[in-house]
Amino acid sequence: MTGLIIILALALVAFYVNDTWRANERARRVGRQACERAGVQLLDATVVRTGQRLLWGERGLALQRHYRFEFSADGAGRHPGEISLEGRQLKRVTLNWPDGGREFQGPDRDDPNGGASR
Fold this sequence. Notes:
Blueprint: H1 2-38, E1 41-42, E2 48-57, E3 60-72, E4 79-86, E5 89-96, E6 102-105
Antiparallel strand pairs: 1-3, 2-3, 3-4, 4-5, 5-6
């Protein structure tokens, strides 16, 4: 019985690590695409996970993860952006513009603007 519990625990850890790695890759790709659509540069070519929590979402139990990244509109300044994923599904991308405006991009869509509004 103890062996079964250990195997189950190892399988859960392996699943979590794999899911986290895939979600991080997804967030990096989403950040790069959001910056390309907005015509800005993604700085440091990466995103950083700032938090996660377990929640009951549209598809059942899922991990909601939040990421931050920085972008530059002019090559000189750094401005924050945020990504929110539920599982690996995009919920929101936010770009905080230097002039105080914000750009929101919603869930994955076929919309050429990606649901963006400024």
